[in-house]
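Pilot study result, target chain (269 residues):
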Amino acid sequence: MYAGAAIAVGLFGHASPSGVAWLRCLGAAVVLLAWRRPARAAWRGRRFLLAAAFGVVTAVMNVAFYEAIARLPLGTVVALEFAGPVVVAAVGSRTRRDLGALALVAVGVVAIADVRLEGSASGVVFALVAAAAWAGYIGLGKRVAVAGDGVDSLAVGFAVATVVLSPLALGTREVWSSPRMLLFGIGVGVLSTVVPYVLDQFVLRRVGRAGFAVLLALLPVTAGVTGYALLAQVPSLPEALGTLAVVAGVALRRRDEPAFDDVSPEPRY
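Predicted structure:
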């Protein structure tokens, strides 16, 4: 997932961040449609509307994410984004554990934002927009999963999102003149969307809510390690502590929840 994001950063010199996000959406749509070939029922009625809304919200989340990582380190952006799902989780409950988790995430976000706000306020804003879109993703993700085949709905949703966000293709003109860069653009869609979502289908069947939450809490750390290894992005001490606070908040919020059937899938950046 974050190897794909690292490749996307490498494309920012040849296409706008939003254009790279659109290429990712296009690549995912082409691969998923060729693989799944959704039946006619997936393109009609409520199932289609849900898939379309889900695809557009996810694509907007990815656009905001790419605009953010064009301005901030990868690990910083991923940590900031965790504000979205944890706040959504906290709204549904008022236990001490939930409030403690929310406090940890808030402290972490403030620590990260304080480091980067002066240098790139727009990067923080884009990251928080992506966090808000993640909250929308959570709500729509449950409905799509209940309405029909999740992978088929992904194929339909990303196809619709590719068309809806097609004006962003204007930022990819240079890519189309280079087969190598176009291949990298499509590869971002495969690495960051297709492969993680398919693997998710196996993970969601085999681990409980607590186990999945522990893995989910590792995402900011994974992003930070990837950013360091592939992009030479070294986090400052406040950023590192803020990221760990976000991870601790997510893990605390989910640790003792036994049921997994109603958990929402995590986004793929």
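One observation from the pilot: The mean pLDDT is 80. A full batch analysis is planned for the follow-on phase.
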